[in-house]
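Record format v2
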Amino acid sequence: MNVTGFMQLYVFILAAFVGYQIITRVPPLLHTPLMSATNAISAISLVGSLVAAGSDRGPVSTWLGVIAVTAATINVVGGFVITDRMLKMFRREPTAPKDALPATSPEAAKAVEGK
Amino acid sequence: MRETFTQVTYVIASILFILGLRSLTKPDTARRGMHYAALGMLLAIIGTLVQHEIVRYDWIAGGLIVGTIIGIPLGTKVPMTAMPQRIAISHMFGALAATLVGVAEYWLYGEKLGTVKMAAVGFEVLFGALTITGSFMAFGKLQEIITGRAVTYKGQNAVNITLFGVTVAMFIYLIFYPGNAVVFYTMIGLALLIGVFMVLPIGGADMPVVISLLNSYAGLASAATGFAIGNNVLIIAGALDGASGFILSIVMSKAMNRSFQNVIFGAFGAAPTVSAKTVSGLSVRSISAEDAAIQLAYAKLVIVVPGYGMAVAQAQHQVRELAELIEKKGGEVKYAIHPVAGRMPGHMNVLLAEANVPYDRLYDMEEINGDFERADVALVIGANDVVNPAARNDKSSPIFGMPILNADKAQNIIVLKRSMNPGFAGIENELFYNDKTSLLFGDAKTSLSKLVAEMKTV
C-alpha cells in the first residue's frame, strides 16, 4: 500500500471517529432527519459519478456515469429538501413563556416540566 | 490552479458536512446547519465540474436535470407516513450510484487497478450491490408490494452463509487477480442476491434495524468509492454516513434487546414461538368512546404511547386534536416514544411533529418511564410489543429483556386497537388483559375522532 492509500485510511478513520462522536449526541427525536441528512450528504458520490460521466472515457463509462449522476442527484436534491421539510416541522411549545424557564435547552425545559 | 480550486471546495464541503451533522444535535439549530451542508454539496459539485478531467457536459447536464426532476417530488410530495419507504429507496439510489462508478472504474482499468484500488472497488461494488437489492426489498416490504412478514424456509441461514462465504472468497481472489472480469461480475451478481436474501426473512417490526444497517452500508459504499477514485470528500462523507447508520443500528438493536446477528439471522417475525403464558380464559374489557372520553377529560396527566398503528391509520392529527382538548380541560399530555416504535428510527417523532405537536412534549423512553406511575391514563395508540409486560417478566417470551414503556404502571390504560390480533412479533400482550386496561376497538383514526367528538360534549 502506498502513501496515498495510507493517507486515505487516516482520513477515513478520523472522519469515522468524528462521525461517531457527533452522531451519538443526536437525540432520538431527530433520528429520522439524521437518516435523511446523512443520506443526502453521502450522495456526494455524485462527484465521482460526474467524473465518470463527463471525462469521455468511452461509452460504457459515460453511460454508467450518467445513470449514477441521475441516481445521486435524486438523493442530493430529494434528500436535502425532505430533511429541511422535516426539520421545519419540529417546533417548541408556542405558549411556553420563555422567561419562565431559566435555561433554554430542551433538556432543561423538560427537567422543569418533569417536576 | 483549477485543481487547487477543486480541492478547496472539497475541504469546505467536508467542514460544512460535519457542522451540518453537528447541528442535528439540537432541534433549534438543525435546519440552519443542514442549509450549510447543502451549500457544501453545491460547492463540491461546482468544484468538480471545473476539473480538467471533465470534457463534456451534455450527458452530465442530462443526468442532473433528470435527477432533479425526480428528486424534487421525492422531497416535497412524499407524505410523512411514507417516510420509512422513502428513506429505504434513497439508500438504493445512493448505493446504485456508488456501484456504477465502481463498475465504470473496473471496466476502464481492469487488472491495471492493482491490489489496493481493486480492494476499494471490490468493497464499493460489494456493499453497493447488496444495498441496492436489500433497500429495494425493504422498500417493497414497507410499501407492501411484497409481504411485510418474514419469509423463511428450511436451511435459509445455511444458504445465506454459503452465499456470503462464496462472495467474500471471490472478493479476496480478485484482490490478488484483479484481471478476472468473470469473477468480478459474478461477485456483483451474488452480492445482489445477498441483498434480497438478507432482507427476505426480516419482519416489519425489525425494519428499523435493517434500514439503519442499509444506511451504514450505503455510506461505506460511498467511502469505498472515495478510496477507489482517490477523493477525500467522498471518504469523509461516506465515513460519516457509515458511522451514523452503524450507531442507529446499535441503538435500535439495543432497544429490542437483540444483537445484530439475531436480527439478521434470527427471523424474529416468523418464529412461531408461542408465549408460555396462555391467555385463554382471560377476558378483555372493552370501553365505549364516551366512557373513555370521560376518563380522559378528568385526567391530570395523560401519557400517549403511539405505535405503528397510529402511522398506518395516519391518525397523528387526531391525536394532537385530542391532546388539545385534554389540555383545555386542565390535563397535561405527554408523549412516550419508544426507540423502535414504528418502522424506522424516529418515526413517531416525525409524525407527531408533522401534526404540530411541540417537540418538548415528546419524551424518550428513559425520560418518561418514571412518570407512568403518576399518570391517570396511558393512552396506547396502535402500539403493542413496546408496552408488553412480558418483556419484563416472562422469560419464555421472545421479547424478554427488551426495554419497554411502563404503560402498565399507569392508573388506567386505554388501548386503541383494531382487533385482538397479536402484534407484529405475534406475541400475546398481557397488558390488554390487565384489570386496569380497557380496549377501544376500531381504526385508530376513527376511534380518535369519536373521542374528540365525545370530549367536546363532556
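The CA atoms of residues 208 and 419 of chain B lie 24 Å apart.
Confidence is low (pLDDT under 50) at residues 267-278 of chain B.
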